[in-house]
């Protein structure tokens, strides 16, 4: 068992680590059997390990509740210890993982700002972890993926709503947050009674319509919270350009809605507390807890040469068995 991983004695049925045969299957499925170019950097390897982690949490743990739910950091350590191709690098796993989390915040993001028919409310999603902030539905781009394709995919995953027919390539707002470029397409005129529900597990805890005039634009001390105290770290920077876009595109015949006067939750995971005052949830679905991810900064590992040859050799040996 990797250093730092300990079994809990309080509930043995909930602390069983995945068996070697399961780890071997995950390593073969998500790491070894991929194009060779995906094995040329630790960033790509860790993205593959992250996919294996999602599969483990969403499928293996749910099918076998005795398996321990693992953070990405714990799961990465298990994979590096269990996979022969990755084991030589276990001594450097702390730096590799920290460098990966630092790299992730620079990957471009795309998503959508969904407006209701009155142009008065926007749809926001809340992350899964305790203390998560609200944001527009969005996510990181895959390798060589177009911005609008990423937006359609991520919004569908996080809300269950297909924006492809309403998306207009020129209607978008783009800002740079830190080192990360974020492009959000404006999708206007969506019915308030649309059914929303995430297609992914353990990623979104709540989906709500919130009034734009109750949100605060980015400023010296208001970027993180709205006037009702709710966290909006990823919303504030888009509000001023969004209000300008609405002023230019709002149909003059659109009637102001007298329903949903305050924030309205339209989907909420079971056992997740409401996001703040003025929200009344209309729908719940069952999900479960997940361990937090280590997101600390890491040392640069850019000059570390990844031994692709050894991995390809391991793959060849596996195929010959």
TrEMBL record:
Q: Which residues form the Nudix hydrolase domain?
A: 105-234
UniProt keyword terms in alphabetical order: Cytoplasm, Hydrolase, Manganese, Metal-binding, RNA-binding
Stretches that traverse the bilayer:
none
The protein's location, in the record's own words, is: Cytoplasm
State the Gene Ontology BP annotations: deadenylation-dependent decapping of nuclear-transcribed mRNA; nuclear-transcribed mRNA catabolic process, nonsense-mediated decay
Reply yes or no: does the keyword Lipid metabolism apply.
Answer: no
- Its principal location? cytoplasm
Q: Which PROSITE patterns does this UniProt record tie to the protein?
A: NUDIX, NUDIX_BOX
Name the needed cofactors: Mn(2+)
| Name of the protein described by the UniProt record | mRNA-decapping enzyme subunit
Q: Which organism is it from?
A: Thalictrum thalictroides
């Amino acid at each position: 068992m990797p250093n730092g991983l300990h079994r809990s004695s309080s509930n043995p049925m909930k602390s069983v680590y995945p068996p070697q045969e399961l780890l071997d299957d995950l390593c073969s499925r998500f790491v070894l059997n991929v194009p060779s170019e995906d094995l040329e950097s630790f960033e790509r390897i860790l993205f593959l390990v992250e996919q294996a982690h999602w599969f483990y949490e969403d499928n293996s743990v749910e099918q076998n509740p005795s398996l321990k739910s693992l953070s990405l950091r714990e799961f990465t350590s298990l994979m590096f210890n269990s996979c022969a191709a990755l084991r030589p690098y276990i001594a450097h796993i702390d730096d590799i993982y920290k460098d990966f989390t630092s790299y992730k915040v620079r990957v471009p993001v795309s998503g959508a700002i969904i407006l209701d028919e009155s142009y008065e409310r926007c749809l926001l999603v809340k992350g899964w972890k305790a203390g998560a902030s609200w944001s527009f539905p969005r996510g990181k781009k895959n390798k060589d993926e177009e911005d609008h394709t990423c937006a359609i995919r991520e919004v569908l995953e996080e809300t269950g709503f297909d924006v492809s027919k309403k998306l207009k390539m020129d209607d978008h707002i783009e800002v740079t947050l830190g080192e990360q470029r974020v492009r959000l397409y404006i999708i206007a005129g969506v019915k308030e009674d649309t059914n929303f529900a995430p297609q992914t597990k353990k990623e979104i805890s709540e989906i709500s319509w919130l009034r734009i005039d109750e949100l605060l634009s980015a400023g010296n001390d208001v970027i993180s919270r709205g006037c009702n105290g709710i966290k909006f770290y990823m919303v504030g920077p888009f509000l001023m350009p969004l209000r300008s876009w609405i002023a230019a595109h709002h149909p003059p015949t659109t009637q102001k809605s007298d329903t949903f006067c305050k924030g309205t939750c339209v989907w909420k995971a079971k056992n997740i507390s409401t996001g703040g005052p003025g929200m009344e949830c209309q729908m719940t679905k069952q999900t479960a807890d997940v361990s937090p991810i280590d997101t600390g900064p890491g040392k640069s590992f850019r000059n570390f040469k990844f031994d692709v040859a050894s991995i390809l050799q391991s793959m060849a040996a596996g195929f010959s068995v």
